[in-house]
Amino acid sequence: MFTLNMSLFYVVSNKFILWQEVYECPIERRNSRFERPLLGSFFLAFGVLFIILYIPCLIVIIGKKSRAPVYLLMLALAIFDILSLIVDSICTGIFDILGISFCNYPLPIFILGAIGGGSWMAGSLACILLAIERCAEINQQFPLEFLFRKSVFPVVAFLLLSYTIYAFFFTKALVFSAEASCWFFDPMIGKDASLYHSYPHSINNFAVGICTIILYLYLSYRLIFKFGYSTSMWLYKTKRQIIFQAISLCIFHATAAFIYEYMQFFAPTPLLIIISQFVWQWSSGAICLAYLVFNRTIRNLVVKMILPKKIRLKYGLYIGVDEHIAFEGAVGNTGAAVVNAAGAAIKLDNFIN
């Protein structure tokens, strides 16, 4: 009952009034401020950067109009990550700069915290499913491959949607503390801290930390040892990019999950609190960087969307077969021979997913 009363569902169903028994702030804390402009500017700047980079990736994923499980999961994860970035970066930066904590604006911060916590939990499940899908792609005998069959995946999508609704509306919300520059479940108003512990978040965090490590280790193992040695430069680059992408995603998600769980059970140091907020920010933003650096399909489509065709042809950033042929025709017969001899092998990955 406590959990329901401390959830967004309770607030929405009670005329947007917080449960005063656990969220009523002392008078002396309602006007106190603790400004951290330098740290806030850091979180705000990187948040804006990540969102600017993520939005073209999201547009490209939507533009694919694909019903393949991998793209549907990437779409869901992109939405959850952008929502997380709004809370863990944009709002965190603004609150740090202005010195705003939960007691200054209880209701708006509670709602933002519910969105941030819900998007983290839902994004965690989407990230795990995406990791399973990647494992199934490289090994058709993977035990969980059946989850992505046409007859089964709609059930998986429904469960993801149900978990998202639960995470947003029926779990305890995070609240912001400017003194710590971090989001906690405990508003630090003098109540028993155990009242605010969120067991659903604990289960979620342990699951995402353990599952992502196991799945991406399996993925890397299959690529390195089971595929064996190859003289193909394309295959070598592809394996290397997938492994780097897996490492970049796994490190931030697992680290964020385990640090936040540590902070729920033990008293963290100020440095660890700042690190936890930084890692949460990068667990949401690193994925768009991984797309743009390691995913040729998304990177090429983003470049094609942003840069005019004339600029792409001028600098050899031909994305499709038609533009590749146009580029070769523009440089003439002599240049074409050079491009065909040297450029084809280099630019072949432009045509590969």
Automatic annotation (TrEMBL):
Instruction: Answer whether the UniProt record assigns the keyword Transmembrane helix to this protein.
Output: yes
UniProt cross-references to InterPro entries, sorted A to Z = 7TM_GPCR_serpentine_rcpt_Srt
Q: What UniProt keywords are attached to this protein's entry?
A: Membrane, Receptor, Transmembrane, Transmembrane helix
- Membrane-spanning ranges: 38-63, 70-95, 107-132, 152-171, 203-221, 242-260, 272-294
Q: Does the keyword Nucleotide-binding apply?
A: no
Q: What is this protein called?
A: Serpentine Receptor, class T
| Organism, as annotated | Caenorhabditis elegans
